[in-house]
Design a protein that fits this description.
Largest sheet: 8 strands, antiparallel
Number of strands: 14
Strand content: 35-45%
Protein name: Secreted protein
Signal peptide: 1-35
Keywords: Signal
Structural class: mainly beta
Order of helices and strands: EHEEEEEEEEEEEEHE
Radius of gyration: 19 Å
Region (Disordered): 179-201
Shape: globular
Number of domains: 1
Length: 267
């Protein structure tokens, strides 16, 4: 989880948070269980990463959102990884009743490490490579009926030989992923894929559990940096094995997810 990165906030002057309004509209039009998430609903949702409210924001009209990605695909370069363990993403939609200002504030990503290469040098004990998705300083939610999310990510590669600073994407040059519940328009060779809009998965819980499917396959992936004890000596090797940089149209992210929200006054 990354908590020390600066937050990029989007703001507007609307009577209600624009993103929340769009989300509620989508939920109001969707019937329960229409999104067909194939995974069981998590038994609990942690609000531990809710970010502090900006000055003047009302706890009664500001919401903390928790999304749990339960399955999906994360394909970057030559790595085609199934999401098999939950990834939690937390953010807030805030509202200042004095200025009518809304903001979207990032909270955190809690992602497990995933095995992507059993043995980089043939030895699975010492040279297996794990990947951990981390936040890289960009989080935006444009006003859209398709519940769009723009997020900057980096993938930390974990291996004794690569050191602790080997990442694909950086804070200054992140993997910029645009996710939608609608239909994508990627460059070739990727073809359009379609997500599923917000709907009610469990209306009788408190708070209600929502579900959605976010997709994105139009993003590019930069090359590796800082590999081999931060010096970058092995960047070329990681790029060769991983297929980085990887141009737009060759990468895909698919997320089946459940979401809940609470007013800050309820936390």
């Amino acid at each position: 989880m990354v908590k020390s990165i600066r937050f990029r906030r989007s703001s507007s002057r609307l009577a209600l948070p624009a993103v929340l309004g769009a989300a509620l509209l989508s939920v109001g039009l969707a019937s329960p269980a229409s999104a067909a998430n194939p995974d069981p609903i998590p038994s609990s949702f942690s609000f531990s990463d809710c970010p502090p409210l900006p000055d003047g924001a009302s706890p009664d009209y500001s919401q903390c959102w928790v999304g749990v990605v339960t399955s999906g695909t994360f394909k970057v370069g030559n790595f085609d990884q199934k999401i098999e363990q939950p990834i939690r993403i937390t953010w807030a939609n805030t509202f200042n009743p004095s200025t009518f200002e809304t903001k979207t504030v990032f909270g955190g990503i809690n992602a497990p490490k995933m095995l992507v290469q059993p043995g980089l040098f043939g030895d699975p004990l010492l040279s297996a490579v794990y990947a951990k998705v981390e936040y890289a300083g960009v989080f935006e939610m444009p006003v859209s009926s398709n519940f769009e999310i723009n997020i900057g990510l980096k993938v930390r590669l974990i291996n004794p030989f690569l050191g602790s600073n080997c990442t694909v994407g950086t804070n200054s040059n992140p993997i910029r992923v645009s996710l939608t519940t609608g239909t994508t328009s990627p460059p070739a060779p990727n073809t359009p894929i379609t997500g599923e809009g917000l709907s009610i998965a469990r209306p009788d819980s408190t708070p209600p559990v929502l579900q959605a499917k976010h997709v994105g396959n139009s993003f590019a992936v930069p090359g590796a940096k800082g590999c081999l004890f931060g010096g970058g000596v092995a960047d070329w090797l990681v790029n060769q094995v991983g297929g980085f940089p990887s141009a737009a149209g060759k990468n895909t992210m698919i997320q089946n997810e459940y979401l809940v929200s609470k007013n800050y006054s309820q936390l």
